[in-house]
Recover the amino acids of this structure.
């Protein structure tokens, strides 16, 4: 079940070694902590939303209590959650950290970027009041809006709207009092509560929906026509049922539909697909309490288009799902047996079939809560990690590749240069090649030059380029998310006997391309099929003719000009 990782990132300490480090950061905080949401900023950095737990300080100072009930009231809510925002760079280093100071303990439900690079942060206080915070780009609090009923409310999701506003999706305990201004149709103990805000954080409306049983708002999305699709759960007689519904942009009911299944259903996520249909993510639970992923695709007229149950060996749940540009999906959540829970990543096809899954974590409690697809098609994921022999939760963020494997730390050109220099330290010392800071590679051993008019590799050249490629290509493959092109340039000297000026140019152009091709072919054929498939995406052969001939003391060095060179181009 396990794919055990060695986590080498604690807080913002990062050590760059000769081997690439996995992009995995664990942030330890006292009294348990977790990350619940992630977004990419306009400068490419990642912002993370989570919470830590803390004690209020200064209680009972210089005060004597005679009433025991007054004392008990004074110590209530002394311990609780504080919202935390972090920003990390492409080396998994913390570059900003902010605890949002509020008068009450509060947990976050999610956050949304504003056009000014700030944040809407949604959540709820520990005594049951929903709140929406507006923060600037430096994570400073601009204003806070507290809303809800006088009973216990909880926000589960904050949804971005096209007009720049947000939608808060949650649950409210019914008050059953007419003077409750937002009470509309809730009849049970708990009701779905939906609240809409403008782009400047002003509350437009807040409405409740539900049955005579316990209802919970799980998620929502805005359809293209401005209506709102809602995913909710209803609990009655020990069973949980899932519902999808549609309301107008003003919150008026249009339709509601139950997702029918014999087993208990736990809804977790709602996604609008690129094809404009919707995907509900749920978990089925059997008699042995084993969870399996259940996906339902439907349209805005409540027609069920596709259903899929993904059978797994271990109990499995997806907490979030995102869609790649090619229609494939990545879901994140957890997988568990009797003794351990791991973070889970699943790759799912357009027709909702499981293509691949990966498990991440240590021998303890680990879970993925939220994912975001990044500009480079990697995936940022946040959740909870628990160290071995520990009972305390920690904040956890990782980056995954498109195939759900763990991504590596993004390196700058200078970092790649240093690593290449170390990899080819022996060849550089033996004066067989030089590596420049622009990531071009020149071969300086005389045995690697071509004879006049020749382009086929001799035995020494073949042996060298095979050894060379077996060092270079795995390194490029390891950092494929940063490598755009590997150029192989063929060069010639400027002479060509017994021909015209045009003939000299054209003959050397053809010769330089042949030298490039023969070297490209040698590098390509020396690799296995996986690396060859990768090379088809980055290899570029070109003939440079004698434009870059080697000149020493104002004279052309014809021998050294008959060569090939390489250049690595980053994305």
């Amino acid at each position: 079940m396990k794919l055990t990782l060695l986590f080498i990132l604690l807080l913002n300490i990062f050590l760059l070694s000769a081997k690439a480090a996995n992009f995995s950061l664990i942030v330890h905080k006292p009294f348990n902590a977790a990350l619940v949401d992630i977004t990419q900023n306009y400068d490419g950095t990642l912002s993370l939303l989570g919470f830590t737990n803390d004690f209020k300080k200064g209680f009972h100072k210089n005060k004597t209590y005679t009433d025991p009930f007054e004392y008990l009231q004074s110590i209530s809510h002394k311990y609780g959650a504080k919202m935390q925002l972090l920003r990390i760079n492409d080396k998994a280093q913390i570059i900003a950290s902010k605890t949002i100071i509020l008068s009450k303990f509060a947990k976050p439900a999610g956050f949304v970027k504003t056009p000014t690079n700030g944040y809407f942060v949604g959540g709820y206080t520990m005594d049951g009041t929903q709140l929406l915070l507006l923060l600037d780009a430096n994570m400073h609090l601009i204003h806070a809006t507290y809303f809800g009923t006088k009973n216990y409310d909880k926000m589960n999701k904050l949804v971005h709207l096209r007009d720049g506003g947000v939608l808060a999706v949650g649950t409210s305990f019914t008050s059953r009092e007419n003077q409750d201004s937002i009470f509309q149709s809730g009849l049970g103990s708990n009701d779905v509560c939906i609240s809409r805000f403008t782009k400047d954080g002003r509350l437009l409306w807040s409405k409740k929906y539900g049955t005579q049983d316990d209802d919970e708002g799980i998620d929502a999305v805005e359809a293209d026509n401005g209506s709102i699709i809602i995913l909710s759960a209803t609990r009655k007689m020990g069973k949980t049922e899932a519902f999808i519904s549609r309301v107008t942009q003003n919150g008026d009911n249009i339709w509601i539909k139950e997702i029918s299944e014999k087993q208990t259903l736990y809804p977790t996520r709602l996604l609008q697909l690129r094809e404009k249909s919707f995907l509900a993510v749920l978990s089925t639970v059997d008699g042995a309490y084993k969870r399996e992923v259940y996906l339902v695709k439907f349209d805005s007229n409540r027609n069920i288009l596709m259903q899929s149950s993904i059978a797994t060996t271990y109990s499995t749940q997806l907490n979030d799902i995102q869609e790649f540009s090619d229609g494939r999906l990545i879901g994140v959540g957890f997988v568990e047996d009797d003794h351990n829970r791991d973070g889970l990543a699943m790759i799912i096809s357009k027709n909702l079939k499981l293509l691949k899954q990966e498990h991440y974590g240590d021998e303890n409690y680990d879970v993925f809560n939220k994912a975001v697809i990044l500009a480079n098609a990697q995936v940022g994921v946040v959740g909870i990690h628990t160290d071995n022999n520990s009972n305390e939760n920690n904040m956890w963020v990782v980056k995954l590749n498109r195939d759900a494997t763990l991504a590596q730390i993004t390196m700058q050109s200078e970092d790649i240069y240093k690593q290449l220099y170390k990899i080819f330290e022996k060849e550089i010392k033996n004066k067989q090649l030089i590596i420049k800071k622009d990531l071009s590679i020149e071969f300086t051993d005389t045995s690697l030059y071509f004879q006049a008019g020749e382009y086929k590799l001799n035995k020494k050249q073949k042996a060298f380029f095979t050894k060379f490629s077996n060092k270079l290509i795995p390194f490029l493959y390891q950092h494929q998310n940063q490598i755009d092109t590997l150029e192989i340039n063929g060069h010639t000297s400027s002479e060509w006997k017994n021909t015209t000026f045009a003939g000299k140019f054209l003959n050397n152009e053809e010769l330089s391309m042949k030298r490039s091709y023969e070297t490209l072919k040698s590098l390509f054929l020396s690799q296995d099929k996986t690396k060859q498939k990768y090379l088809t995406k980055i290899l570029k052969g070109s003939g440079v003719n004698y434009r870059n001939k080697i000149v020493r003391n104002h004279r052309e060095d014809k021998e050294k000009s008959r060569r090939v060179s390489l250049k690595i181009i980053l994305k």
